[in-house]
Amino acid sequence: xxxxxTENQYQASCDTLYLHYEGEIHKLLPNARxxxxxxxxxxxxxxxxxxxxxxxxxxxxLEASVQRLKTLGFQEKIDTLRTSALCMLEAxxxxxxxxxxxxxxxxxECFLTFRDALRESADLVQQYNELKLxxxxxxxxxxxxxxxxFVTQVLAKE
Length: 158
Known about the structure:
This protein is an alpha+beta fold. The chain has helices at 7-28, 62-70, 110-119, 122-134, 140-157; strands spanning 33-37, 51-57, 74-76, 86-91, 97-103. The protein is 46% helix and 18% strand. Strands 1-2-5-4-3 form a 5-stranded mixed sheet, with helices on both faces. β4 (86-91) and β5 (97-103) form a beta hairpin.
C-alpha cells in the first residue's frame, strides 16, 4: 500500500543520504555523472520518501560500472526495465535508495528531463503531488501505472 510524505518530512534526510552516496559513487566511478533525481530532488514534491540517484556512464562502461556499484551494497532491481543502456539497482541494506545507471546520451536521460521540467513548473509539481496523493492506499502496480501516464505526458511536452 502506497504512503506519501510532504517535503518537510523527507527531503532533508534524502539530501544528506544523496551527498553520502555521491561521494561513494565518485570514488568508484570518477568519470560518472551523478545527479539527484526523483521526487526528493524536486522542491515541494510529495514522495514515498525514497532516494533516486542518476549515474550516467559511457555505454561501453555500463556493465563494469554496475558491478562496481554493487560493492556499495546494491543489487539489480527485478521486475523493472533492464537494457544495455539502463540498469536499476536497489539497496540491500533496507535503505530506500535506488541507482539508475544510464548510458550517457541514451533515451534514459529522461530521468533528468522529467526532474528539470518539474523543477521549472510549480503547476506540474502540484499536479504530480495530487496524482501521488490520489494513489494513497493503492498497490505499487496501480501507482506505477498512474505515474507512468503522467511522466509520459510531461516528457511528450519537453
